[in-house]
Amino acid sequence: MKTFMYLVLAFAFVTVSGSVFAQKPDSLNEKCMNILNLTKEQKLKMEEIHKSHKNEMQINKRLLNEKEAQLQELRTSNNSDINLINAKVDEISILKSKMMKEHEAINQEIRKILTDEQRAIYDKEMKGNKGRHKAEMEKNKPCPAQK
Question: Using one digit for the tens of pLDDT, what is the confidence trace for 128-139?
């Protein structure tokens, strides 16, 4: 299941850096193909979907990381300005919304190439993995009081 979570994140969320795909492109793709039992045509379409969204998602992820770092600087400065903090929070919210919409577009493109049976498996795994992914992210997030 853990393997499938990484797979789904790679294809559906496309937020994994290019270096991960450069290191292990076959292993991630093969696991996806095996779990969903994709045809050659579906495999090609899945790769096209991934490639078509990869660049934009990487750019957005870098921007998000930059904005979150800027927010942290604003929060911890000696002369914190709540208006600047709120403006940065708004920028982050807009970018996260854009990324979520892109993720949903990817999910819908993927679902369109799947059979009913494959779609049921994909949907089930996506539902389960979102909860696990969120829990994992929260588990790895440092406590603000520990800084």
Answer: 765 444 444 444
Structure tokens at 26: 């076959």
Model confidence pTM above 0.90:
no
User: 46: buried, middle or exposed (CB in 10 Å: 19+, 13-18, 0-12)?
Assistant: buried
pLDDT tens sequence across 40-65: 999 899 889 988 888 999 999 999 99
Residue 107: which of 65, 53, 58, 36 has the closest Cα? 53
Where on the phi/psi map is residue 14: left (φ > 0), alpha (ψ -120 to 50), or beta?
left
- 31 contact partners, CB below 8 Å, separation of at least 6: 3, 4, 6, 7
Tokens of 54: 């990869």
In Å, how far are 77, 79, 101 from 72, measured between CA atoms?
A: 9, 13, 25
Alpha-helix residue ranges (DSSP H) falling in the chain:
2-8, 18-23, 25-36, 40-76, 82-113, 116-140
Helix axes 40-76, 25-36, angle to 10 degrees: 120
